[in-house]
Amino acid sequence: MSTKRIAIAGLGEIGRTLTRKLAQGLPGLSLSAIAVRDRAKAQAWLDREGIACPLIALDALPEHADLAVECAPAAILDQICGPMLNAGKQVMVLSASALLPRPDLIELARAKGGRIIVPTGALIGFDAVTAAAEGIIHSVQMVTRKPPNGLAGAPYLVANNISMEGVTSAQCVFKGSARDAAAAFPANVNVVAALSLAGIGPDRTTIEIWADPAVTRNCHQIKVDSDSASFTMSIENIPSENPKTGRITALSAIAALRKLGSSLQVGT
């Protein structure tokens, strides 16, 4: 089996976790490059970790990688996906919210023979949702509860002068479609964007977002009603050092990468 070259775009909490794991070794995969904005800071971290890996510009990704993992701010998704997809290569996208207003990237992948992979991330049950979507899904509803500091600074809250300071009881701060939620909370609800892509789309998938000081984890509950099954799923994710992101998000990306080089694939 040939070795697939993996590049990491962005060296935040998730990017560092993936870099460490790839450096330790995953079957059939190699860490080939890292694209970052601050090369001096990135090199200092690599030196401390004892990891040798070239640092490159985003537009050089296709030269160094067969697949790039996007671990960067959603605003630069085009700069990561564009060069890779135009070269007919693969991108693993973690900022699923940023995909919803960019259908051109999906069209580019189709036209050039590239591929966009969206891992399960911080949710569960995508196998059931994608299976149900082969039939008829009547509704997909999601309720997210996060500690207030996990939502602080979201564009929707800033635009509506909603402060997360001093919140003493559960407060519903948003209710609407997955598409609107992705625009309103681009760093907070990649989960519902991915859910909508797996199921009935961003306009029919609905979500409530709650700021809840009583919870210490990022809590998601999903209800799906379809012609093949009705099911409810819930998960409580332990936040990483970045309170907007659960620890399991990076682990989900690692699991998705591991499947690329595995002789056995379990799950739809």
Give a description of the structure.
- There is one protein chain.
- This protein is of the alpha/beta class and 268 residues long.
- It folds into two domains: 4-121 and 248-260, Rossmann fold; 126-244, Dihydrodipicolinate Reductase, domain 2 (2-Layer Sandwich), CATH 3.30.360.
- The protein has helices spanning 13-24, 39-49, 61-64, 77-86, 103-112, 126-132, 155-159, 178-184, 190-198, 247-260; strands at 4-9, 29-35, 55-56, 67-70, 90-93, 115-117, 137-146, 171-177, 205-211, 218-226, 230-237.
- The strands form two sheets. A six-stranded parallel sheet has the order 3-2-1-4-5-6, sandwiched between helices.
- β4, α4 and β5 form a beta-alpha-beta unit.
Number of helices: 10
Strand order of the largest sheet: 3-2-1-4-5-6
**Number of domains as seen in the coordinates:** 2
Instruction: Compute the average pLDDT.
Output: 94
* N-C termini distance: 22 Å
The assigned CATH architecture of the largest domain is 3-Layer(aba) Sandwich
* Residues in helices, as a percent range: 25-40%
What is the H/E string?
EHEHEHEHEHEHEHEHHEEEH
| CATH H-level superfamily of the largest domain | NAD(P)-binding Rossmann-like Domain
Say how many strands there are: 11
Q: What is the global morphology? A: globular
Might you state the CATH topology name of the largest domain?
Rossmann fold
Largest β-sheet summary? 6 strands, parallel
Q: What is the strand content?
A: 25-35%
Question: What's the alpha carbon Rg, rounded to whole Å?
Answer: 19 Å
What is the CATH class name of the largest domain?
Answer: Alpha Beta
- Class by alpha and beta content: alpha/beta
The stretches of 5 or more residues where confidence is low (pLDDT under 50) are: none
